């Protein structure tokens, strides 16, 4: 995902947004609501100090985190984020959303997340490697292929995952490829992993668009964020006949009424590391992104982007949450009142963790699948999960977000209830 800057909405934090979402689903859970406080408390939180010798010989200290929110359904699963605004509150929320996400698509995982408060773009490759290896050693006491499996997130990539895997393996004395996912293919990574999240957004988006009678052909689409997720979802929708009229990353907001040439923009972005200066579109001011005429909006950057104020002026019919937690709770209410359908993050962007699951399974078996097989398996899981959520929303007469939380919470709390409390 893109390294777009954070947006705050008053004193609302990511964790409080998550708690509000849990509060909204409690009344739908019947007898299982007795266990709801399980989801309001992270199971385990680790804060670590990371001393780093810089290239110039000075020593700097960075703060790192790993939060395991819930492990009732299996080992923890969740990314590692390198960003200057990372804090415990955010990591807690992201770990909780991973708990909900894994349960919503019925993967045998709990939720976890990690991060370091650092701007990775200000470090040399050597400094980044040393930071990653020290962080991995510090959190090594709670991660493992049957405990908690990290993956890439904002500011990290397959190279960082290779360093993490190697560090964990060296500390154990044998190679453990399944300790992380999102690795390079030649180190036990899975085909299709980098494009999986964007593909999942496209698959769920098409399913809901069809149900809402929104035609993809010539649909006007706005995308915020142009990293792995934003670029892939742009490519797939463009390939399906949609027009990507506006794209925003941390450097620029590009607009073209007849649609941006996505192939050319991807080439430009790969060469320049951002979209600024792309000659095939007009650069406009940042807030104009939200007032552009659009049919489908895809936030694929960071959390907290759709505020109540922005929800009041967005012109789209459908929002596909490619990012985690991009919509504030009060903004959700405004969107619902305006009849704008939101496909929530915990379903919409679950393609990434689904293929991460496939990678973990392949590592465990030392048997690897073709990309075509992976895409077919992933599409099937995403469509089935979307169908279950849609059905639940119609049954309960609620939003897709609430429906996704009902489905997920029922699975998590049933596992919690049947496992019981030990020691009693």
TrEMBL record:
The keyword Zinc does not apply. Keywords: NAD, Nucleotide-binding, Oxidoreductase, Plasmid. InterPro entries: Aminoacid_DH-like_N_sf, Glu/Leu/Phe/Val/Trp_DH, Glu/Leu/Phe/Val/Trp_DH_C, Glu/Leu/Phe/Val/Trp_DH_dimer, Glu/Leu/Phe/Val_DH_AS, Glu_DH, NAD(P)-bd_dom_sf, NAD_bind_Glu_DH. Residues 190-420 form the Glutamate/phenylalanine/leucine/valine/L-tryptophan dehydrogenase C-terminal domain. The record marks 153 as: Important for catalysis. One of its GO terms (biological process) is L-glutamate catabolic process. It catalyses: L-glutamate + NADP(+) + H2O = 2-oxoglutarate + NH4(+) + NADPH + H(+). It comes from the Bacteria. NAD(+) binds at residues 197, 228. Substrate binds at residues 77, 101, 356. Catalyzes the reversible oxidative deamination of glutamate to alpha-ketoglutarate and ammonia. This is Glutamate dehydrogenase. It comes from Candidatus Pantoea edessiphila.
């Amino acid at each position: 995902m893109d390294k777009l800057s954070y947006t705050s909405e008053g004193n609302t934090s990511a964790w409080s947004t998550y708690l509000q979402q849990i509060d909204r689903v409690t009344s739908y859970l019947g007898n299982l609501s007795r266990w709801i406080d399980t989801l309001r408390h992270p199971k385990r939180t680790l804060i670590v100090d990371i001393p780093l010798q810089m290239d110039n010989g000075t020593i700097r200290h960075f703060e790192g985190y790993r939060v395991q929110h819930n492990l009732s359904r299996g080992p923890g699963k969740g990314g590692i984020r390198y960003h200057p605004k990372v804090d415990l509150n955010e990591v807690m929320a992201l770990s909780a959303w991973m708990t909900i996400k894994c349960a919503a698509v019925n993967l045998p995982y709990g939720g976890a997340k990690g991060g370091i408060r650092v701007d990775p773009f200000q470090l040399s490759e050597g400094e980044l490697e040393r930071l990653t290896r020290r962080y991995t050693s510090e959190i090594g006491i709670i991660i493992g292929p049957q405990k908690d499996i990290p993956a890439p997130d904002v500011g990290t990539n397959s190279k960082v995952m290779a360093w993490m895997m190697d560090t964990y393996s060296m500390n154990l004395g044998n190679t453990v490829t399944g300790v992380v996912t999102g690795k390079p293919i030649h180190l036990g990574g899975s085909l299709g992993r980098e494009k999986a999240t964007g593909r999942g957004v496209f698959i769920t988006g098409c399913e809901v668009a069809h149900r809402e009678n929104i035609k993809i052909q010539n649909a006007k689409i706005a995308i915020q964020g142009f990293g792995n997720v934003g670029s892939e979802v742009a490519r797939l929708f463009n390939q399906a006949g949609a027009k990507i009229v506006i794209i925003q990353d941390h450097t620029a907001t590009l607009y073209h009424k007849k649609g941006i040439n996505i192939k050319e923009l991807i080439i430009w972005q790969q060469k320049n590391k951002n979209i600024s200066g792309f000659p095939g579109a007009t650069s406009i001011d940042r807030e104009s992104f939200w007032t552009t005429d659009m049919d489908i909006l895809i936030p694929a950057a960071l959390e907290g982007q759709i505020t109540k104020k922005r929800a009041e002026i967005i012109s789209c019919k459908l929002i596909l949450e490619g990012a985690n937690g991009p919509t504030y709770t009060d903004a959700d209410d405004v969107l619902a009142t305006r009849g704008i359908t939101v496909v929530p993050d915990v379903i919409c962007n679950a393609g990434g963790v689904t293929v991460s699951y496939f990678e973990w399974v392949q590592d465990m078996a030392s048997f690897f699948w073709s990309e075509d097989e992976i895409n077919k398996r992933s599409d099937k899981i995403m469509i089935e999960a979307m169908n279950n959520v849609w059905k639940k929303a119609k049954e309960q007469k609620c939003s897709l977000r609430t429906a996704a939380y009902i489905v997920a919470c029922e699975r998590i709390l049933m596992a919690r209830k049947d496992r019981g409390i030990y020691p009693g």
